[in-house]
Amino acid sequence: MKALTTMMMAMCLTLSLSACEANTQENEPVIPETPQNPNEEDDDNTGNNEKRTSVTLTIGETVLDAYLNDNKSARDLISRLPVTVSLNRGSHDYCGNISPALSYDEKDVQHGWKNGDLAFWTVGNDFVIFHSDEENSSSTGDIVNIGAVTSDIETVRSLGQNINMTIALAEDNNSDEDNDMITKMKITVNGHTLTATLEDNATTRAIAKRLPMTLPMMDLYGREMCYRFSEALPTDNARTRGYEVGEIVYYPPMHSFVIMYKQNGEHFQMQSIGRIDSGVEVFDGIGDIDVKFEEGE
After folding, report:
1. pTM of the entire structure?
2. Where in the chain is the domain with CATH 2.40.100.20?
3. Residues 6+ apart with CB under 8 A from 142
4. Is 285 exposed, middle or buried (0-12, 13-18, 19+ CB in 10 A)?
5. Nearest to 149 by CA among 176, 120, 114, 121
6. Which CATH number fits domain 184-295: 2.70.70.10, 3.90.650.10, 1.10.150.20, 2.40.100.20?
7. Which Pfam families does its entry note (predicted)?
C-alpha cells in the first residue's frame, strides 16, 4: 500500500510540470515513450551554440544579459527587436504570449529545459524564461530553446509576479563587424547595371553576407520588386512609414527584400537597407525576373 501511494504521488508531481503553467494548466504535455533529447546534457551537441546574438532583457531598472541562438525561432525574434512582452510568474517560469507566434522547425522542438533557458512554447505561442525545476522537466514537451540568460539566475527569480520585459539587441553585437561593412551594391537586371548606396544597420549587414546572390524577384502591386527569404533577417530600426522611389527596404512580417520603383503613397513597416543611385525606372513594368546583387565599388 505504501509503495502504491508513493508511486501515485510521483506521478502527480510529474504531471504538474508544464511550460507556462500559470496560463495553460489545461494543456498538459504527453509524456514521451522514448527520450527526445539524447544529448540534453551537452549543449555543444545541440547545434544552437554555433552563433549567438547578445541581447538585453530590461524589466524596470533591472537589466539582464542574455543571448539568442541561431535556430528559426530565435532568428524570427531577432528580426522583431526591440520587443516588449508581458510575462506572468509560475513556479518554474515567467511566461507570456508573443504575437504573432514565432515560426519554428519541428526538429527544434524538445522536452525539458535548463534553468535560465529562453524558450518558445508552441502549444500556447508563449515566450518563456525558465528559472527553476530543470531536474524535473524532462517530461515537459513542445519547447523550442531559443537562448539563455547569462546573468545570475537568482536575479531572475527575484523579479515580480507580473512583469513587462523589453528584449533588445546588446550594443556590442556589431562592434566586430563595422569595419567589414560594404557601402555600395551592384545590381544587374535585364542587361542593365545599377548601383545602390547601402545604410549601415543589422539588416544590411545580413544582406551583405549573402552577396553575391541572384534572386527571382516578383513584380508586385505596380510599385515594387520583391523577394521573400524563407527565414527572417535581423532588424534594428524597423518602423511604419512611407517610402521613397528607389529605396531598398526589408518588410519583416513577410521576410521581404524589396526595391520600390514607383510611388503609391502607402505606409507600411519597413527597415531601410539603402537606395538605388539612379535608373530605378528600369523595373517599371518589367515583370517577374531574376536580379543579381553583388558587392559594388
Report:
1. 0.50
2. 53-169, 184-295
3. 19, 29, 109, 121, 122, 123
4. exposed
5. 114
6. 2.40.100.20
7. Cyclophil_like2
Residue 32 has a pLDDT of 35
Residue at grid coordinates 535560465: 116
β-pairing, 256-260 vs 247-251, is: antiparallel
Which amino acid makes up residue 81?
Answer: L
Residue type, 152: D
What's domain 53-169's architecture? Answer: Beta Barrel (2.40)
Sequence-distant (6+) residues with CB within 8 A of 115 are: 130, 131, 132, 133, 134, 153
Which residue type occupies 194? L
Per-residue CA distances from 80 to 2, 74, 94, 237, 261 (Å): 54, 10, 20, 9, 26
